[in-house]
Amino acid sequence: MRRLLALTLFMAACNGSGGATTGTEASTTTTGETAATADTAATASTGAPTTTAPTTTAPDTSTGDDTTGTGAEVPGCAGGSFLPVPKDTSLPGPWPVGARTVAIADLTVEVWYPAEPGSEAGQEKIRYDIRTGLPDAEQGKVSDADNPWQDCECWQGLPLDADHGPYPAVIFIHGTAGFRSQSLEHMVHWASRGFIVLAADHPGLWLKDLLGSLCGVPMVPQNLADDIGQMVAALAAPAGDLAFIAGHVDAARIAMSGHSAGGGAIAGAGDSARVLIPMAAGGVEAGAALESTLILGALSDQVVEYSGQQSGFASSPAPKRLVGIDGAGHLAFSSLCSLKNTQGQDFLQIAQANDVCGAQFASFLFDCSPDYTPDATSWEITQYASSAVLESVLRCTDAADNFAELQAKFPEVAEFQEAL
Looking at the record's lineage, which domain of life comes first (predicted)? Predict the structure, then answer.
């Protein structure tokens, strides 16, 4: 009976609105945190980073028309100052990305941020251990050799670039059975282009809690509205673990994005967020702060039908845009389908092979297929479109002009609509 009730709630969370739709999220720093199973099976968690080989150079981000680097500055909104970024918003920016795991009230939150250029030299990149997103009794079932480690183009605890900013903030909400680093590529991309990005493991929605509820652990209540409110309040008055961004974050310029259930959770956040970006979810409501909405969907989504994004676009207030990716599934906006171990096994295969409790239910949300548009292409489209909106509204640039080239640049964009 407990399992039937838990499964009913599990699926309801994936198809609900407001507090939860479906979704997943990638994990955080190197030790601890687990991958999602609803939407996938990997996770992320807190803990000390398990790093990989040291690196001494930042990625080359100078391209095209831009002079990207540390030698010039460009103005932002209300007196902000930033390094120039590539005009092509699918490309990473000039900042190395720092990462820290912090506590905000009762939430474990990962923060990715623009770090001091050059401070990553000689440092090891972060590697996240997604097993910490499993229930405690299940974590030891997956060996290091079987684990799908999540490598990050980011570095633990680098000094924030205090010579620029203040930096706008992006809050990301994972989906059902997700975790904070589920969409790691997007978190790092936004931070590299001058945003402070926060993502939490949300109690009751987190992979660890939902799998636990299927395996004899008491169910954990969720309150995504409170979670979001706690993060917004923390940005307004950074303290404790978050004190390192005090004076460097522009708390008046916040965006929110969410995948699946996370996209539903941000639907009513327009009184706090100037930009809302639901992914594989629905539409949004009008709000006092809301200036722009970008709805992202996948035409082959087997969990949340793409028609939900189309109707969500129709009901959302302008200015708004809709981008639909052809041949992509529900997890196209996350890292989950691409996270595999050295044997080529994905999250679901690993969980099933190691008899992880609750793995049998992961298939309901593990919408991955070799026939789908490659993840790298979906990520590039997502980063191009999302960064264009974020930078135009929160950085006061002309980046939204990039939408004129969206479908020519990406033939995989089957549908693009805008109402401005």
Answer: Bacteria
Half-sphere exposure of 73 (CA within 13 A, CB side): 9
Q: Which of 236, 229, 175 is nearest to 202 (CA)?
A: 175
Rounded Cα distance between 337 and 67, Å, is 35
Q: Could you say which of 3.40.50.1820, 3.30.390.10, 3.40.30.10, 3.30.2350.10 is the CATH number of the domain covering 2-419?
A: 3.40.50.1820
pLDDT one-digit tens code per residue, 204-215: 999 999 999 888
* Count of CB atoms situated within 10 Å of the CB of 376: 10
Write out pLDDT tens, residues 54-92.
333 343 333 334 545 555 899 999 889 999 999 999 999
- What does DSSP assign to residue 346? B
DSSP H or E stretch at residue 348: helix 347-353
Q: Cis check for the bond before 59: say yes or no (omega within 30 of 0).
A: no
- Rounded Cα gap, residues 70 and 84, in angstroms: 8
- Cα 50 vs. chain centroid, distance in angstroms? 20
How would DSSP label each residue in 148-207?
--EEEEEEETPPB-TTSBPEEEEEEE--TTB-TTTTHHHHHHHHHTT-EEEEEE-TTTBH
Q: Domain segments of the chain: what residues?
A: 2-419
